[in-house]
Amino acid sequence: MFEYAPAPESRSIVDIKPSYGLFVNGEWVDSEVRDKTVNPANEEVLAEVAWATESEVDGAVRAARAAYENVWSKMPGRERAKYLFRIARIIQERGRELAVLESLDNGKPIRESRDVDVPLVAAHFFYYAGWADKLGYAGFGDDPRPLGVAGQVIPWNFPLLMLAWKIAPALACGNTVVLKPAETTPLTALVFAEICQEAELPPGVVNIVTGAGETGHALVSHPGVDKVAFTGSTEVGRAIARAVAGTRKKLTLELGGKAANIVFEDAPIDQAVEGIVNGIFFNQGHVCCAGSRLLVQESMYDEVLAALKRRMALLRVGDPLDKNTDIGAINSAAQLERIRTLSEIGSEEGASRWSPPCELPDRGFWFAPTIFTGVTQAHRIAREEIFGPVLSVLTFRTPAEAVEKANNTPYGLSAGVWTDKGSRILWMADRLRAGVVWANTFNKFDPTSPFGGYKESGYGREGGRHGLEAYLDV
Amino acid sequence: MTATATSAALADIGRSDATLRAFLHGLPGVDQVGAEQRAAMLATRSIKTTAKAWAIDLAIRMVDLTTLEGADTPGKVRALSAKARRPDPADPSCPAVAALCVYPSMVPVAAPELAGSGVHLASVATAFPSGQAPLDVKLADTKAAVAAGADEIDMVINRGAFLAGRYQEVYDEIVAVKDACGGAHLKVILETGELATYDNVRRASWLAMLAGGDFVKTSTGKVPVAATLPVTLVMLEAVRDFRAASGRQVGVKPAGGIRTTKDAIKYLVVVNETAGEDWLHPDWFRFGASTLLNDLLMQRTKLKTGRYSGPDYFTVD
Amino acid sequence: MTSSRLAVRKTYKLFIGGKFPRSESGRSYLVQDANVALASRKDVRDAVVAARAAVKGWSGTTAYNRGQILYRAAEMLEGRREQFVALGEPEAEVDAAIDRWVWYAGWSDKIAQVYGNANPVAGPYFNLSSPEPTGVVGVVAPPESPLLGLVSVVAPAIVTGNTVVVLAAEERPLAAVTLAEVLATSDLPGGVVNILTGKPAETAPWLAAHMDVNALDLAGVRDAALATSLEEAAAENLKRVLRPPATPVDWAADPGTGRMTAFLETKTVWHPKGT
């Protein structure tokens, strides 16, 4: 037996303060209301964090407004660009620290925060930095104008990456921002505030207000906000869409998904299995575009399922800071409860549940990688977003049936297609109602590549040239 | 289908070019980018402390210590034989390597040196490295090596025939060489650098296994692209699937270009997470290498002593 | 001209699925000296069903073909120019409406080139973003410009492959019904454009709340409270909403691409590049 010895990444590289305030107008501001953020892998308290009240949110929006009017909107694009380049460089320099901190606060494996999240964060700032002085060439008119103050609310699944997706394009286009990180994962956003200071970004251009739903509500409904950007659940997205109705606020939403990952009988099977695993178990399945519905062509069902189970048995679940961990901790007790509840419903509705043998730590929030077979479109686990490491396996017979089943959902964020036949890929890609179609790959992200959904998965795109539109008055 | 029933069906595949083509082209494709990403991900595994010590000793036991130079002499081969038996003279706990790998002309020199040591004697044969010789010459080459004491034969396939789609020709040649080997183990060198695509690597692996090869081996070490992690990954998938289909286990040998302990451990991780632990044994996985051994010894010493070692402390045969 | 011949009057009906039904409610209202169908919520329902049924075929039609059909609409409109003038539409607006069809017809096979692009991702992948139609778009037509305004909101939505359910201007619906006759003779498949006359304030909420409508164009909503409630209703299934214009629109001005891109989704396709 090749037992990999523990290979923990050192956490000494991060220096977590016992307590954090709000980052407003370039300074740290104390707040009366506070709460704790914990390490989901062992329930250890990491720090105390402010929860911004309505008046504190108001202060942040005012700071952003002043910075917008006095500094940032007047600054030439090439100067804005240099600030963003500077931020990108500091992120690279502090990459290991950010990765460790992200894994501590979120529970995701260090391999992922180190190799995926943080490099993409830096890349995102680099990419949008370059746009700041080239907006006239982006296809939105000769001199497109910013919107003003952007209120941005981000989720806990990719805390720093979602921050980058929000802040980089907003700043490049000349907006200032007030960003609210998720209440369970505020720490990397707070270090990002330090990075803004280190980069000498003018005060008020970036403001970070930590807190929970009420803070977010105060932010998106603040009359001084010109633009609202939200990533999170469809339910909250709907509420925000209602809240901004009748205003002139521009809104973009990146919401839930229930993506089909479609495997044809002529697929490159070993890579398809990797894609299935990556599709649903990457980041503990806390991914809005996760391939949570596996659609396998019936003629290949046994082979694919056997290969998938064999592969799942190799997944290493445990300490997020261990460099060999594939699946980390579930982000919170509440999320764990949701995953458990939906999984139990799956069993009750008659689907067969399977997990590889896998020892879970005693403390912290953990859920073994799980698949359900015998699932039909009528099962709740085939319709509702579980947002955890739980895969529903369904079958299909023909390409048309695969499309019909894939599209038979109110969501439309992503889809996967696995086949060696090129013309079939293009035929499928044309018909899948999803904002991202991964053919013979899955869960790939790049700052140049627009991301966002159809239907109830939201509207607007983040990333790429298209991502500029959300932050320009066009 | 049971393994034996499949076995009979598999044996039938070799009866014609058409059946071979139908079978080999019916294997699932390999997506290059996906395969390379899987290999790259596995290469990020961090193997430390006890796991590393275990892996280093296993890697030493898997080395086919190789010298395949025009300049090989009996003196060189004798020295290498000694090294194969006792890689680290200063440390009796250091295991011997799996085999010594030489040209057929050197087999008579190595055989007495290795007798009774448990170290296998491998010989390349079949007009290594190009394979461009008549079949009877290749068979004579093989038989001579076995007669002189080689218990493992590393043959090369006819890449020209393979790339031209003459699968039956390649198949028949492997069958004939296997027959000429008698009791010796047959490693079939695919020369993956010349096959160019992973689809070809997968097909050639199956072809070699169907024809009776005991091992599939990546490379001669004589063309620019030798063993790579993703090529080895694809071959490991092939032996895994072949065992599932036929019940027969076939070994894998990456050769050429594996020079460091770090590299060797990456290969072991790929073995572990692709074919599985059944292959983590010198009977089923080998490294065709020469300089790798000294790096393994250096790292082994470092782990034991806690300080970095230097090349002066290891033999340079 | 004096004639003893009795004129044949036109019955102004709805336009749903390529047909001209009366309102299922049997109601009509007197406007512009004519009896015009007063659409009900069930007509909205039927129109959405027709529009949804038409999505697959229309969005699957080649861009070239869609362009030809829109150009055909311009041809037909040119031929009926006088009818619109007789309905009280200023000649300049009728001409502009004809030209607007021509403008959008030409966009059919260009918008994907202008609004889509290849993305140079940092890896061995083909990556292409292309616009696709959103689906069924509910439109409240501008009341102040019954022909040009109507064409200016319908043409950009359908040229990219969407289908529409349009609520015509309440006070001046005849141009809309006559335009339906133009469209019915333009090779436009039934259901791509559905036009409901009547009171948008009554029907728009049904359209906004309909879960099988993907987007909402509030171009013609002039009541802020109504606009807000429609936008709120639209949130239920995350409809894309184009809000009423903040300032009065000059429908004769260069329309730009905004009314097309408002009802487009961007689909990004990845594929590895390898041998």
UniProtKB/TrEMBL annotation, chain A:
Active site per database record: 254
Keyword annotations of the record: Oxidoreductase
Gene3D superfamilies to which the protein is assigned, alphabetical: Aldehyde Dehydrogenase, Chain A, domain 1, Aldehyde Dehydrogenase, Chain A, domain 2
Residue ranges of every copy of the Aldehyde dehydrogenase domain listed in the record: 28-473
Entry-linked InterPro entries: Ald_DH/histidinol_DH, Ald_DH_C, Ald_DH_CS_GLU, Ald_DH_N, Aldehyde_DH_dom
Record bears the keyword Nucleotide-binding: no
Pfam families, per the entry: Aldedh
Protein family: Belongs to the aldehyde dehydrogenase family.
Name of the molecule in the record: Aldehyde dehydrogenase family protein
Taxonomic path: Bacteria, Bacillati, Actinomycetota, Actinomycetes, Micromonosporales
From TrEMBL, chain B:
Pathway(s) annotated for this protein in UniProt: Carbohydrate degradation; 2-deoxy-D-ribose 1-phosphate degradation; D-glyceraldehyde 3-phosphate and acetaldehyde from 2-deoxy-alpha-D-ribose 1-phosphate: step 2/2
Record has Lyase as a keyword: yes
Region forming the signal peptide: none
Keywords for this protein: Lyase, Schiff base
InterPro entries (UniProt xref): Aldolase_TIM (IPR013785), DeoC (IPR011343), DeoC/FbaB/LacD_aldolase (IPR002915)
Domain of life: Bacteria
SMART domains to which the protein is assigned, alphabetical: DeoC
GO molecular function: deoxyribose-phosphate aldolase activity
Reaction(s) this enzyme catalyzes, per UniProt: 2-deoxy-D-ribose 5-phosphate = D-glyceraldehyde 3-phosphate + acetaldehyde
Catalytic activity, EC: 4.1.2.4
Family stated for the protein in its record: Belongs to the DeoC/FbaB aldolase family. DeoC type 2 subfamily.
Protein name: Deoxyribose-phosphate aldolase
Origin species: Phytohabitans maris
UniProtKB/TrEMBL annotation, chain C:
Protein's recorded name: Aldehyde dehydrogenase family protein
Lineage: superkingdom: Bacteria
PANTHER family: ALDEHYDE DEHYDROGENASE-RELATED
Cross-referenced Pfam families: Aldedh
Domain Aldehyde dehydrogenase: 34-241
Natural source organism: Phytohabitans maris
InterPro entries membership: Ald_DH/histidinol_DH, Ald_DH_N, Aldehyde_DH_dom
Keyword Flavoprotein attributed: no
Keywords, in A-Z order: Oxidoreductase
